[in-house]
Inverse folding.
């Protein structure tokens, strides 16, 4: 019986790896890089030209709107989703499999990715909707309204709900559990149970509670972590120039080892870059849509800035610590053994690096060169806990928003079918009594939908599904603490890659609307006008919220 389950586990692992290879083919890597370059050129490198304004807009708040959360809260939630285990464990993994040059490719994807983040966040604001006193939006909304493709909108929503609700939370908790187990000698299942209970307390409170927690924890922990990294680099200042040279040489395949793994260097850098900063993935715009601003471009600029914070600051801090302290190996292959373990073969081994698969131990080992082993492990474990915890909160919000999209569209489709049937029977005298009953039922459905949109939870089926999502998210968080890290990361990669495929193609097709919005915003600024958004002037259809805003302001 044991051999049977071992065989099944090995078979499932092979399938997962195969699917991951399909999703993360070289085509996706090229698509991410070229789309980021395209958006940067089309916006005339808005991520550079408007850098100062990005920071200023962080604290912008449209007091005229009661619906939604502030720009800073949306920024903090986006930062929560971006700054997670990818910044500590993911960077170590990129170095372990791709070498030092992988970090340079993470920088490149972040720079061009800021252009992608701007476009997708601006589109999310253009096509957002009101729901329960908050705004909801994201790829599913702008694919349906902008591209008139309910099928692909629903497909993205389904994939996002599964990926963010089931695949991605275990990755974050897995990193917490491994770190806590080594540092504090706590059983992984106990860590998982504690994290799951804390997550349950937060997500039950909805978006407001998530935003309030995120705006405190995410910026504070990022600042503290960067300060610690600077201290480590000051201690090892003599090797920092050599580290940068080695990173650049490795990034372009200079040297025998660099030339041998250049493909892996680019692939791991781009993959981990997208996983960490989420640019183009489609999760960032879900949070961007929740902000209350008077022009969509403002939140687009704020979200582009969060990409810089994630990769160019936090990820770079981790990478420089590891590389300066030499606490990494470059791995050739990780072979799964029949008994469930792994066998690692190396291309390069450093004397200060721990053996085995790359992970959080690379980062804690680097910090330990300054603080000592015990204190270094404690600091990294605490940082990892807060980073991963806030990321799980963001993932839940992504999944909930997409579930709400799916159920709102299901209700609308039922109502439209009933309207169509009534219209077709209206001229049939024999169907009068039946027609009257249907019209009464349709009126009741319309009232129910309007009431539901005004106050979350009136629709019983949606309430049941959302609570089911909460239970599943909490459960997967616990399961992630006891599952293998390789499986958890691979499932996360599949989720991220699948969403990226759909979203990047969608924003490429919709980018003219975001570009027109940017030109409109900059024109109003040049004319000394406080920017406001009128979609009809820009020939943008489907921006229902902004059209309603224009009607109210003109009355």
């Amino acid at each position: 019986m044991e051999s049977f389950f071992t065989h099944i586990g090995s078979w499932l692992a092979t399938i997962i790896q195969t699917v991951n290879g399909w999703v993360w083919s070289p085509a996706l890597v090229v698509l991410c890089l070229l789309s980021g370059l395209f958006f940067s050129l089309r916006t005339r490198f808005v991520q550079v030209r408007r850098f100062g304004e990005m920071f200023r807009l962080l604290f912008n708040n449209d007091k005229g709107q009661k619906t939604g959360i502030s720009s800073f809260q949306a920024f903090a939630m986006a930062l929560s989703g971006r700054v997670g285990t990818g910044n500590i464990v993911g960077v170590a993994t990129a170095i372990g499999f791709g070498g030092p040059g992988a970090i340079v490719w993470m920088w490149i994807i972040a720079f061009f990715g800021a252009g992608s983040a701007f476009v997708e966040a601006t589109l999310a604001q253009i096509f957002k909707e009101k729901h329960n006193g908050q705004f909801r939006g994201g790829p599913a909304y702008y694919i349906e309204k902008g591209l008139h493709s309910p099928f692909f909108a629903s497909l993205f929503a389904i994939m996002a709900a599964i990926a963010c609700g089931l695949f991605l939370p275990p990755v974050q908790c897995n990193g917490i559990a491994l770190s806590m187990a080594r540092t504090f000698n706590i059983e992984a299942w106990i860590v998982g149970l504690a994290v799951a209970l804390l997550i349950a307390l937060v997500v039950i409170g909805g978006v407001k509670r998530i935003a309030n927690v995120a705006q405190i924890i995410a910026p504070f922990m990022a600042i503290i972590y960067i300060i610690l990294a600077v201290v480590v680099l000051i201690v090892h200042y003599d090797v920092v120039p050599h580290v940068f040279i080695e990173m650049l040489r490795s990034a372009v395949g200079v040297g025998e080892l660099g030339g041998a793994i250049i493909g892996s260097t680019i692939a791991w850098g781009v993959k981990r870059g997208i996983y960490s900063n989420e640019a183009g993935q489609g999760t960032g715009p879900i949070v961007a849509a929740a902000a209350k601003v008077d022009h969509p471009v403002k939140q687009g600029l704020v979200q582009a800035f969060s990409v810089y914070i994630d990769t160019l600051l936090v990820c770079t801090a981790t990478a420089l610590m590891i590389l300066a302290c030499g606490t990494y190996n470059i791995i050739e292959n990780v072979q799964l053994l029949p008994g469930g373990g792994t066998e690692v073969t190396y291309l390069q081994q450093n004397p200060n690096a721990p053996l085995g698969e790359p992970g959080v131990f690379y980062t804690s080992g680097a910090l330990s060169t300054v603080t000592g082993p015990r204190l270094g492990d404690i600091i990294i474990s605490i940082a990892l806990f807060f980073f991963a915890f806030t990321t799980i909160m963001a993932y839940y919000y992504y999944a909930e928003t997409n579930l709400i999209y799916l159920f709102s569209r299901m209700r609308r489709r039922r109502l439209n079918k009933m309207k169509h049937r009534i219209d077709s029977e209206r001229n049939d005298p024999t169907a009068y009594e039946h027609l009257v009953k249907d019209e009464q039922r349709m009126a009741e459905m319309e009232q129910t939908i309007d009431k539901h949109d005004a106050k979350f939870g009136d629709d019983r089926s949606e309430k049941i599904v959302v609570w089911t999502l909460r239970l599943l998210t909490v459960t997967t968080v616990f399961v992630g603490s006891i599952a293998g890290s390789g499986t958890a990361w691979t499932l996360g990669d599949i989720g991220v890659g699948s969403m990226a495929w759909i979203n990047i193609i969608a924003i490429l097709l919709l980018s003219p609307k975001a570009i027109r919005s940017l030109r409109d915003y900059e024109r109003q600024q040049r004319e000394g006008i406080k920017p406001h958004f009128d979609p009809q002037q820009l020939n943008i259809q489907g921006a229902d919220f902004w059209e309603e805003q224009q009607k109210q302001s003109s009355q």
